[in-house]
Design brief:
Layout (H helix, E strand, L loop, with lengths): L1 H24 L1 H5 L1 H21 L13
């Protein structure tokens, strides 16, 4: 779970930089607030999917109580 959180935080910081650059270029003004919101939600969704898929495999642990 630790690596999942670190990966997701890094991805969100990266996407923040991308959207800041798009804002400085004026691309977000042309898109409008609705499409900007859609793009942000899609980017966060992709980041969550990638971080969960790369977080490792779930394993069952058997504990012997004898």
């Amino acid at each position: 779970m630790k690596w999942l959180s670190i990966y997701l935080i890094g991805y969100l910081i990266f996407m923040g930089g991308v959207f800041l650059a798009l804002s400085e270029w004026g691309a977000l003004k042309e898109m409008g607030p609705t499409w900007t919101t859609v793009a942000v939600l899609a980017a966060v969704g992709v980041g969550i999917m990638v971080s969960v898929s790369s977080s490792g495999r779930k394993q069952n642990v058997d504990i012997d109580t004898h």
